[in-house]
Amino acid sequence: MGVSRRAVLLSGAGAAAAAAAATAAETALAAGGSVAGGAVGGAGRSVRTEDVGRHGDVGRQEDLSDRYPDERGWVNDCVRRIRALPYEPTPMLELELPARLRGSRLLVKNESVHPSGSHKHRLAQALFLNALANGWLTRNSPVVEASSGSTAISEAWFSKLLGIDFVAVMPSGTTAEKKQAVLDLGGEIVEATGATISERARSEARARRGHFMDQFTYAERAYDWRGDHGMAGEILHQADPDWFVMGAGTGGTAASLARYARYTGHRVRVCVTDPENSAFFPGWRDNDRTVTAKGSRIEGIGRPKVEPSFLFPLVNRMIRVPDAASIATMRVVGERLGIAPGGSTGTGLYGALKVLGGPSRHREGATVVTVLCDSGERYLDTYYSDEWLDRQRIDFRPWRDTVERFLDTGHWVPPRTWREPHTPRGHMWNM
Ligand SMILES: Cc1ncc(COP(=O)(O)O)c(C=O)c1O
After folding, report:
1. 185-212 burial string, b = 16+ CB within 10 Å, else e?
2. What is the pLDDT of residue 57?
3. Ligand 1 first shell, C-beta below 6 A
4. What DSSP character marks residue 98?
5. What is the secondary structure of 374-401 as a DSSP string?
6. Mean pLDDT throughout 218-246?
7. Residue 108 pairs with which residues in a beta bridge?
8. CB atoms < 10 A from the CB of 343, how many?
9. Tell me: the pLDDT tens digits for 281-302?
10. Which candidate, 393, 399, 392, places its Cα nearest to that of 414?
11. Which residues does 419 contact at the CB level (< 8 Å), separation at least 6?
12. What is the pLDDT of residues 394-420, one digit of tens each?
């Protein structure tokens, strides 16, 4: 193997000496050796060097193609395969509302129809394209991701499409159904505690010489938020809503919708629904990114810390949602729509009902869109299991009555035993 880049900036006697040095280097490398003092490759990789300058690094040429391989043919092929995937906007379901809310609409964007079963299909596609275009993926290195499940399943799907090994670092409490889906797609699973999955994924990637995809950092910037073919473009063109309501895991979906709205001049405002024990709500309320919390029981949303993709200024309103209310809404609305959604969909639906029926409700009616993130099939042993709910001491029945009554009459009557958390007047979250 020869030296691929030749020395430049040569002149006079220096050039002759440098040429001799370069020839010696080429000879050594051709014989399979490394150049003394010039091998700068890390972790056992040798890097070929021509040290031809007389003043420090001036004129120094290094061949770092081992460290920064440009496998353009492979990258182009991966990108082509991803871009060739069929594209079709996902459907909207509409929930019937009571006469009292005449003029209002509640639409549910069904993202469970993606081949990998959730809105994270779009994120995984964006993360892979971003990583390929940035030169972060190489042919024989695995992709590693930290995920409570949905993103892992979607990234496993794309890894399989591209023939890349995939390792998911998942919280130990993740449902068996989600773990099985990753395994079925050829992925490997490493379990860690919820708060440490990102650190663990980073160290796994280092140890395996792979790439840590890092959805929590890159979700907000990997999405093509200017494009009409993202979830934001589809929603705003299908419905032109007054409010978009959804929980946050990375915060990437909320951020890209808010950006697209600003970019295209839409009026929609963004409400994030946050489950119990999540750091997002107190962090946003107090503009404090250092807040920590215990971590949520609603898979996919509510994090123990404020993740980098959760962008405070793009969120107009937040609603804290008791876990029992998420489960109740998931079940009641699911029955009325003839579907079985997952828990995070229940959290978003609860927020959508509050926005429609709350004290600040639009007299002339409002259109609210939320997302059916994934199907309840992934949660048969948790949110759809009465034993699991008993073990977790989640009694959703009082909330079920509240939601049923609201959908029948338009009146919001919270369970008698429940007190709305105090929200000082005049604050943004109290709109
Ligand atoms: C099931 C589910 N719902 C909702 C979300 C939240 O989406 P985002 O990460 O865009 O905030 C996630 C994120 O992981 C999820 O897995």
Report:
1. bebbbeebebbebbebbeebbeebebbb
2. 76
3. 118, 120, 148, 150-151, 219, 247-253, 299-301, 342, 344, 373-374
4. -
5. BBGGGGTTTTT-HHHHHHTT---HHHHH
6. 95
7. 93, 370
8. 28
9. 999 999 999 999 998 999 999 9
10. 399
11. none
12. 999 999 999 999 999 999 999 988 777
